[in-house]
Amino acid sequence: xxxxxxxxxxxxxxxxxxxxxxxVGFVPTMGCLHEGHLSLIRRAKKENDNTVVSIFVNxxxxxxxxxxxxxxxxxxxxxxxxxxxxxxxxxxPSAEEMYPHRYLTYVExxxxxxxxxxxxxxxxxxxVATIVTKLFNIVMPDTAYFGQKDAQQAVIIAKMADDLNxxxxxxxxxxxxxxxxxxxxxxxxxxxxxxxxDAVVLFKALQQARRMIRxxxxxxxxxxxxxxxxxxxxxxxxxxxxxxxxxxxxxxPVRRIQKNKILIALAVRIKATRLIDNCIVTAP
Amino acid sequence: xxxxxxxxxxxxxxxxxxxxxxxVGFVPTMGCLHEGHLSLIRRAKKENDNTVVSIFVNxxxxxxxxxxxxxxxxxxxxxxxxxxxxxxxxxxPSAEEMYPHRYLTYVExxxxxxxxxxxxxxxxxxxVATIVTKLFNIVMPDTAYFGQKDAQQAVIIAKMADDLNxxxxxxxxxxxxxxxxxxxxxxxxxxxxxxxxDAVVLFKALQQARRMIRxxxxxxxxxxxxxxxxxxxxxxxxxxxxxxxxxxxxxxPVRRIQKNKILIALAVRIKATRLIDNCIVTAP
Lengths: 284, 284
Fold this sequence. Notes:
2 copies of one chain form a homodimer.
Chain A: E1 2-4, H1 7-19, E2 24-29, H2 35-47, E3 50-55, H3 75-84, E4 89-91, H4 95-98, E5 105-109, H5 117-120, H6 124-139, E6 143-147, H7 151-163, E7 169-173, H8 193-199, H9 201-214, H10 220-232, E8 237-247, E9 262-270, E10 273-281
Helix pairs in contact in A: 6-7, 9-10
């Protein structure tokens, strides 16, 4: 396993691999790896000759009031996990390597970036689109793997890759969950035991919505009201950023649930910890 | 010579070429080719196994009041010239191919895009950065060639390629001029004979500035005043958008000319036709 710290070193190595006909799978992460990341890495390993994992806590996707400085970092354990998965290359750049003095260039997927989480995290998806563009140019993968847990990010990156003609495939893999349904997230470690118990309400509310739709509910507003009531009952819930029922591909709001795939997504603050979750549903 | 109309067709062909170790040189154009373009193409031919020329009048880099619809197009003659130069691939996409319905993604080099020409052409360099990103992802060149005539564009694209880690080299080649000094431009054909004679004043003013600096002038404001007087004397000059004396790399304004490379750039309207020109000077 090679650990590389510069973009140039990765590009030189990957160019060689691709010239000899080898495929490259890529999993970009912010480190503090959990089974969600590992499921992406295992798929990348299975489908490619080389697997590259980047670890970079991207300052540009955090707003000044957010948790950039306290975002969990666990380099030694991450390396241990990646070694165990037989990852070929870890790209581990510094902030200075990615954003040198006088950095000026940004990528933005308009409209999709200002709704849902974008309303509560201004600049977040611009930071995501920018770093992912840079990483795609550095790693030059055949396929890049992202988790469905970050549903809006997945839609934005797929749209960006398509709009900007990136010569690669994007694969979105299912959310990995704890036994009780809580979606894995590096931020779960911020939760104390009571908060951890209450946090499962995101999943519960999604399950509730799914059951309602299966039972014939078609009015999105009514479903969202029921979900909100469930969520607000939990004492650790400090605020409900949003519950959205939208078209799974365009993220356009859905009022009446029809036959197309819909995304039910929500963001909830469990005291100071902001958690997100979602599910994709097709009405029967 | 292959003429390809889809991004996918170009990517498939280039992937094959690159896999067999062949290099790719790329010259993006808006067509209506002149000796300026041909100088780039000849250099690309000399330095690469394959040369790709794109022809696409990019609607996103024209503002609604600009000359997009009347911008000169000359497909047959362009093809004739490219055939003569033994270009390998022409990429000739439709607007629909490049910006399909629901296109949403843009690239912007902040700060550098809002000064000089950017002040007079809002959105222009965002359109340029976006189309060049798309073309880089489609053509995947080893080296891309641009003309110094579009000095600000050259700085912005070099900065973008660097910031976004594009795995390629940018080369900027000298402006090609008519015998009397007028910089070649597809827009020169808008000029009537009187306007054509007056248009040489852009070059004359730049020469004047160069002579002043050689003779010891160091105050940028004084040099700009002298240039403006020269330009405004010509009856066809309807307005002087700007004269700028800036650092050649950062485009930061220069008040007192020092030892670093400076760019003297100007944009002048000859009746309805907006022309630009520039030169790079180092004080002796």
